[in-house]
Design a protein that fits this description.
Helix 3 runs parallel beside helix 8 and helix 4 runs parallel beside helix 6. The protein is about 65% helix and about 0% strand. It is globular and about 65 Å long.
């Protein structure tokens, strides 16, 4: 499955470089046409790299949060991480109007980490945890932060300036203003390194203690990685929902819930999902372009409904790639099983 996903991603990535309002042909590039190479280097290649980092980063961030919070409905969207990052960007625009993109990123990192930590602090104090209660707390907390952000934006007439970060799109991704998203790469590498630790912490505090893993340290380290990945994407691209929620759940249906076994596939499928949505947005009403947030919202909703219907019908049973039923390593934990918080 990993090799298949990698091959599909490579093919789609190559095709996306030649999709856009201005036609770029491989033969023309090979002849050394200066104008075509300028468009390729300044716009098409940076856009592709930003798309790949976004898909990989948001998917991995969602997988980490779901594992650490022991709930399949937790993601940067339902964990108030995206809302907190947007609030940080607004603070940067208010207090440092002349700040660079890196300056705004620092504010976004700080507020995203703080907001995610507060969310986890809330859910740790919920006595009777229900599978739906935890994401609902995150959604309500995110809406509170979003309300404060909108209030301040209207009060100080910053609505138009903030609008670029409220809806995700890649149309403004150009060479020189997207490089912050490269921070996703070392953060994803850290996630791979500590994958087993995240898996242990996802089993609970007592289980972690018995295996000698520092529960709180790994918990907040993982949440910090997820928050920084999300903030890096929001600063460059804007808000993109559903990726961190849908992609890990879809991959878990095929590969199970062991984070080290699913991390690579989750990253690859997330990149494919975002790339396909971006190409659809560029093609549907060409020469105009639809925001990727719209396409992701439509496709994500369809996938999410399909996921719910499958879980209601089959419960814990995972999709078998071989046709011989499920195996132990392919067993996927159902988000809808009664009383289970995973």
């Amino acid at each position: 499955m990993t090799f298949v996903l990698a091959f599909i991603l490579a093919v789609l990535a190559a095709a996306s470089l030649f999709v856009g309002v201005i036609d770029i042909e491989l033969a023309t590039l090979l002849t050394g046409d200066a104008e075509q190479w300028e468009i390729f280097i300044i716009s098409r290649l940076p856009r592709l790299l930003a798309i790949l980092c976004t898909g990989v980063g948001m998917s991995v961030a969602g997988l980490i949060m779901q594992q650490l919070c022991m709930n399949k409905f937790v993601s940067p969207t339902t964990g108030a991480t995206i809302s907190s990052a947007q609030f940080g960007i607004l603070l940067a625009l208010l207090f440092m109007p002349g700040s660079t993109l890196w300056g705004r990123a620092v504010f976004a990192f700080a507020t995203a980490i703080l907001g995610t930590w507060i969310f986890v602090w809330f859910i740790q104090r919920i006595r009777f945890k229900d599978v739906v209660m935890i994401p609902l707390v995150g959604i309500m907390f995110g809406n509170v932060i979003g309300g404060i952000t909108n209030y301040l934006a209207y009060k100080y007439e910053m609505t138009q300036a903030l609008s670029s970060w409220l809806v995700g799109h890649f149309s403004l991704v150009l060479k020189g203003r997207y490089e912050i998203v490269y921070l996703v790469v070392p953060l994803v590498v850290l996630a791979f390194i500590f994958a087993n630790h995240f898996n242990i912490v996802g089993m609970g505090k007592e289980f972690s203690k018995n295996l000698g893993v520092h529960y709180n340290l790994i918990l907040f380290a993982g949440l910090t990685i997820a928050a920084m990945i999300t903030a890096s994407v929001v600063v460059v691209v804007g808000s993109i929902s559903y990726i961190g929620l849908i992609v890990p759940n879809v991959v878990a249906m095929f590969k199970g819930d062991k984070i080290r076994g699913t991390l690579a596939d989750t990253a690859l499928f997330g990149a494919i999902f975002v790339l396909v949505c971006d190409m659809i947005g560029r093609i549907v009403i060409m020469p105009y372009e639809l925001p990727i947030e719209l396409i992701v919202g439509i496709l994500g909703s369809i996938l999410f409904v399909g996921l719910l219907l499958y879980r209601l019908k089959y419960g814990r049973r995972a999709v078998s790639l071989t046709g011989h039923g499920t195996t132990g390593c392919a067993a996927s934990v159902s988000a809808l099983d009664g009383g289970d918080s995973r």
